[in-house]
Amino acid sequence: MKVKEVRFEKLFSLEGYNNERIGFTVELSEAEDESKVVAELFFKICQIEECLDAYRRLLRTYQNVLEEHRYAQLDVERARKEAEELKVELEKSSDELEHLQKAIKLRRVADELKTREEKLAMLEEELSKLEKAREELKRRIKNGEFTLEGLGIPADELRKMEVA
Q1: H helices of 93-149, where?
Q2: Distances (CA, A) of 127 to 62, 71, 141
Q3: Which strand (E) or helix (H) includes residue 72?
Q4: pTM over 0.70
Q5: Is the pLDDT of residue 164 over 60?
């Protein structure tokens, strides 16, 4: 018996009861070994799915960091407003004890503001990194390039990202 065609596909379960099927049908030439073709197709499908899964993870992580960034922006705005209000109160206070208490509180708020601004800057940097990686991976997928190297995010880190 001579095999003329090989079909190989794999069904991947995704979250939310969704599935994704990736498969290929190959016409064999006289010289091709069907077992080797099946093995090549298997690894090709695994590489494609790994890339698609990384893209889904990048999307989810980007959305999570974007949401965290929005909350951090609000925290910074609140701390700035509180600091401004305390400065006004500090200028108005005539009692020495009250002035000292407000100055201490203003110092605490200023420290919190600095910490929050640093966190915001870190999140902005992370968003930028994720967005670049997401756009590059999207471009690769559209061009049929299913590789994860050189994205600016190590492949093992991509695999650890939550898809929740």
Answers
A1: 96-142
A2: 7, 14, 21
A3: helix 34-92
A4: yes
A5: no
